Fold:
Amino acid sequence: MSRYLLFLPFALLFGTLSGQNGCPGCFVSLPMGLPADTIYLSQAPDGQVGQYYDADMSFRMPQTTTPVNATDPETPPGLTISQVTILSVSSLPPGLSWQANQTQFDPAEQTDGCGKLCGTPLIPGLYNVEVIVEAQVFVIAQTTAFTFPVLILPGTSVTDGFTLENNSGCGSVTAEFTNNVPSGGLEGYSYFWDFGNGNQSLNENPGPQSFDQPGVYEVQYEALIDTFGYLLTEVVVEGVACNDIFNGAPDLRVEVWDPAGVRIFDAPHIQNAQPPVSFTLNLFIGPGNYLLRVMDEDSGLEGGDDECGTVNFTQNSNGPFSSGSLQASITIVHPVDTIRSVDTVVVYEQPEAPVIAVQSPFPLCAGDTLLLSTSLADGLQWYQDSLPVVGATTASLPVVEDGLYWLSQTTPDGCSAVSEVEEVSFPPIPVSPVFLNDDNLLSMYDPGSLPEAYQLQWYLNGLPIDGANSTDYCAEASGAYRLEVIDLSSGCSSYYSLEVNYNPAFPGCMPSAATEVASPFGLNVFPNPATGMIRAEGVLPAGRARLRLFNAQGQLLDVREVQNPGVGPFSVEINLEPFPPALYLLEVQAQGRVEQVKVMKQ
Structure:
């Protein structure tokens, strides 16, 4: 069944489980011409630390296992997928949350869906988002886990002075800096960097810097520049005497003419302007005398535009002026100043690798429980064979299956560390050493089932019998006998017990002189081993005979009476189907004589 789940990569990420909300609704967007019964999952785009991440991921579920068979021939095609349920999601990039339209899907009714990842990533890295899903084919449900990658690139922070690449991380960070105010080889530039890690630089473009301890590092940047030039930023017309026709408010605009008499700026007019009126120019001014003209826009009227006033100015002019009825001010900036920028590098504490303590019985055998534990309490996730164990987020993990087990811890800042891998193996318990009592001789039914390297020990009433270490033992008294086998390669053991009644007719497991040892009835059972019905045959004397069926513990299971008018053959059928697979004993009694045959049901 587990291979059927290979079709489930489409289900990654999507579900509205408790506590995983906060993203707006998603939108389904599937390629045109996508088959109805297919597997499709759109890819998660890359993100960047500090930049808001918002991604819709659309999917289509298969309705049957036929699309799976196309890529995995071991999965039989044509099986109907009745339900898919998303159980949990883990290993999201720190800072991201997720939401989808639903957690349970019936592919017969609905195959298309979507989910959304959103938030601001905190830590760069390649994250394998892990999704636990349960799929149902017929009445069989199987849980498995899948991963899909989300790449979060290092953060880039931009200030006026510099760009900082890789501005956060766990344990240590190596950041790079790009000067956003380059000199271009011109004179008049000087720089100063203080990285907050004890290093400083006067270089225009410093090399990478390492930040090796947890903390917040303030990076200070300073650039002195005196090559910017002179910028006419604003003209404010505070008063004019010119008016439109019929004394209406003028439609003001301004013009700037360079020293060569070329108009280099003409602002759009402001209709019915009410001074003060501000015009933004941002016009570089070179050496020489410039002319500022303030005009009343009268386009289309006879006589053209009216001049409301003019003034001459240079690079060093600044502030208010008047020319006739014109009152205005200009602002020219000459930023021979210091550009200062500050940014931060954040190094989060890298947790120590968790240490796993192992508490287990010795030896460890199939059916035992191994307890893995840690002294940590928060941010834990246990894994088996690289997949998260559903719900295993506490300080201990009971283990009952073979596998590779490890533990991760994630801090609230999103930094993670993983433990060493614990390889856990549960060797099988040896086959129970079933034995039979045959006239005081206790013998293992199937010595071939013993391990390659083993040790046997017989017990009577709970006490070991000295020197009794073979597959047979001759009982000398009645009591509770037990045979224990130890697999020397693993230390695992099993045992079998039987209540034995001592038969004084067979001292030392040999018949006494008065005991008839020949087979009195020629009892034969077939088939043997059997799975259901058996037939017992032989030759009985005249009169009544009794057939009895016992289990290996001596419990009577069936009784048959046979009446023979004279000496002759008999045949009796007995049904073993109601009984479990085991060793049984069929006994025939007639005229004071007894014969037994061992019967094995498979």
Helices lie at 66-71. The CA atoms of residues 4 and 189 lie 67 Å apart.
